[in-house]
Structures are given as C-alpha cells and as structure tokens.
Amino acid sequence: MLLNYDALNIALASFAGIAAVQVGAGLFYQKFKNKSLFFKVNLSDLVAIIIDSIVFQYVAFQGINFEVTGGQILIKFIN
C-alpha cells in the first residue's frame, strides 16, 4: 500500500498550513518591506508560526485547543 488514507486529514492539514503560511507571512513581509531585516524576518516568522499552528490544528482536528496552540507557538518561536 503506497498511501495511508487514515492519515489523509493530517496530510491535508499540513498542506493547508503551509499554503496559509506562505500567503500570510509573505503579505506581512511585504507590508513592512521598509523596516529592518531583523524586524521583517522575525515578525514574519512569528506570523507564520501563529498561522500554521491555528490552521493545522483546525483542519486536522476540526477545532482549536488554545492551550495546545499557545504551547506550539511558544515552543516553535523559541526554537
């Protein structure tokens, strides 16, 4: 078996998260294109982390647990 259909919602959630991150972080970066590189890169990364955490969890599990999402955002940004 080449495909695991039981993991389809996780694969779709990953795709949706990545697509949303590309759009969201790109728009943020362009809006602040006149700011310093440090500001643009770090804040667009934070925006990307927030978008990914929310979109992935919502698509994969049809809901958002704000404690889990907050923890994901914190860990991803610190790392």
What can you tell me about this protein's structure?
With 79 residues, the chain is mainly α. The protein has helices at residues 8-31, 37-61, 66-78. The radius of gyration is 14 Å and the shape is elongated. The chain starts with 7 loop residues before the first helix and ends with a helix.
Topology diagram in text:
Elements: H1 8-31, H2 37-61, H3 66-78
Helix pairs in contact: 1-2, 2-3
What is the H/E order? HHH
Bin the helical content.
over 70%
The number of E-state strands comes to: 0
Which structural class best describes the helix and strand composition? mainly alpha
Strand percent estimate: under 5%
Between the first and last Cα atoms, what is the distance in angstroms? 36 Å
What composes the largest sheet? none
Number of helices: 3
The backbone outline, from C-alpha atoms, is: elongated
> Cα-atom Rg, whole angstroms?
14 Å
Concise overview:
With 79 residues, the chain is mostly helical.
Short key terms for the protein model shown above:
single chain; 79 residues; mainly alpha
